[in-house]
Amino acid sequence: MSHNIIVTNLSNHEQEFEVHGWNNNQNIMVQPNTACLIPAPDGSSGAIIALHDGHEGEQAEITKNGFGGNDFFDLSNIVGAGGNMTVQQLDDPSTRKGDPLFMQNLNNAWARADQGTKDSLAQCVHTDGSGRVVRIDAIKDYPQLETFVRSFADGKTYIGVGAWGGSPGVDSDNQQSSAGKGNRDIQVTYNDGDATPIAPQVAPLQHFAHPVSRAVHSLDASSRPRIILTNHTSAEQSYSFYNNYWNGNGTAGANFDHPDPTVSVAANSSLFVSLSDTFKGRVQRGTQLPATWAEFQLSADNDHAAHGDISLQQGCDGAATISATDGSGRSNGFTEDILSGAPEAAVQNKPDGTKALATTVGNWMSGPNQAAIDYELQVVRQERAYIVGGTGVPDVASSNQVLAVDFY
Asked: What's 146's DSSP letter?
């Protein structure tokens, strides 16, 4: 299985991070107020290290699904610092490691230090023209710097080398390596100011295969269930979410006239879309039919997981997939262009002239289109998307209440 490391940059400038152990050991550049999603398989280990003018700084050291099935992680300043960083399991502040105001506390301590202390640290503490500390070198190389940093950050971050190579280390450092609570997504948060994490909401993100850069804004905890919505086309697209009017046992009252919300997604880009956990409905391109539907609920009554599927019953205006994000690998739908080779008898353009395939079950505009049914059963097949209703389409469930919906 695999979970994710979400690297969030809350600062007002782009921030580069070294990535060790994931992302093919390639650095990432995270834009201001955005985040980056890095897949992290169970059993893997590595580090996310902030860079400051090419110098390594604060780092989150992480092992996924280690001893006892728990994540192990710490926030270390052993190799330096130039910003503030925290690390925790997603949505669980009780697991947080790191000082969210490390640099501010550093500068306060520097302002209080006597001249002798400052002179002893001149080689490893770097200031700007106003005397403000902007970066420190590797603590492990300067014993006097370790003493200084412990005066304000002891017990908040990994400062010394810890229990390593026969050394017992310092207990306050060793405690930083305590286990998390099980195996979950990891949130790494960087900022020049307060690095206390905030959660992602509806916001744009640039998509570049893996990882993807995701914008972040504050979010009420009750809205945590969400859709990661990706537009794989070469043009900006509008997508509408429709919450059903009513829901029964295997039945629902589809909503055709009150989308909420409607969002725009740039070409080859994505959004976090946060919704109530009571949402049961769909997302489609625009507001017109015929359209491909990604149907889902975010918290089922029986297991409180998110569940979804792809449906072509109200038409098809392009390919779509729906996938779990809990590491299970569950996914369904299709990515092929089936519009280009469709028989004319199966085509029913949208009111705006966009090409689409007709409904397979009928609606107020027309009855079921047999040509569309026959064609879709041949090129898509019922096991990948609902074409004529009934059974045979595997449910996609995600225990973390987050589904990825991709439109092509």
From this structure: H
d(CA 331, CA 12) in angstroms, rounded, equals 36
Closest CA to 6 of 192, 185, 269: 185
Euclidean distance between CA atoms 314 and 273, whole angstroms: 23
Q: For residue range 60-82, what is the model confidence (pLDDT) as tens digits?
A: 999 998 888 999 999 999 999 99
Burial 257-280 (b: 16+ CB within 10 A, else e): eebeeebebeeebbbbbbbebebb
Pick from 162, 186, 223: which is nearest to 402 by CA? 223
Structure tokens at 140: 């492990």
pTM: 0.56
pLDDT digits (tens, 9 = 90+) for 348-393: 999 999 999 999 988 888 889 999 999 999 999 999 999 987 777 8
Q: Within 13 Å of residue 189, how many CA atoms lie on the same side as its CB?
A: 28
- Environment class of residue 340 by beta-carbon count within 10 Å: exposed (0-12), middle (13-18) or buried (19+)? exposed
